[in-house]
Fold this sequence. Notes:
With 269 residues, the protein is mainly alpha-helical. The protein has one domain (17-264): Fumarate Reductase Cytochrome B subunit (Up-down Bundle). It contains eleven helices and no strands. Helix 3 packs antiparallel against helix 11 (254-264) and helix 7 (153-176) packs antiparallel against helix 9 (186-210). The chain is globular. It starts with 16 loop residues before the first helix and ends in a 5-residue tail after the last helix.
Amino acid sequence: MAMEYFSGVSDALRLTFVQVMIMANLSIGIFIIGMYINIRKWGMGSTGYGDSPAKNLLAFPKMLAYQMSEHAHVHNQSVISTLILDVVLQRRILNRSPLRWFMHFTIFVGWMTLFVLSLAMFLVEMIHLVGAQVGLHGLPEFMNPAVFRELLAVPNDIFSYILLIGIIIAIYRRLFVTKVREATIAYDSILLIGLTIITISGFIADGIRTGRFWNLSFLGLDIPIEYAPPAALFHVVISLLFCIAYIPFSKYIHMIAIPLALLANKGGE
């Protein structure tokens, strides 16, 4: 596969594959900086809220390790049980509302799995790119980006639909459930709209490239293959900015903060 897949919308707005990889690394760098800021802020818990951030970056990990120790908390639930029951299966939400649990679970599983698959694709692309520069040969066939992309096609489809189901439920709740609608603020709406755009644009970009979803001419959905590169570019750019770089600075930081809090509290009911 040529490195010109993300060719952009015109000659004036053209990005090469290498430039997209640079953008991906920048997004990861912004994410790391954001997490560094958050970890320093969370480290204030060892001295009190409102104090100056701890100078030692290890303050929060040390505090978390102490909180997870047996003598620091009344709960005696193991770390494995907490990870499975409270973090992955989210039983506390299930006990409060099965529909809300199903929404959270599908969004969590869909998003996190797609993130891992995208990270795997990114690593394969980087290995291929670096290998081409240094003359590295003899990599397994599945490490070829084109082959690896096809291997991920079915899992990507499955978990994209899982994520879409969760998004549809979230939209329904915010539009038609009075209590949820009244509690929704603009910040919540922005996050949901952003996640919806990313998911739909991913379906569109992949559908144009493969022709699986958009060859229905009689419905007016026959989008020329020439639109695949700009569609992919749009999806990749907004995903990098919203799903990686923006996370430490948004409400979605709770995907990281809440599991850490559950671990610190040793889970339990």
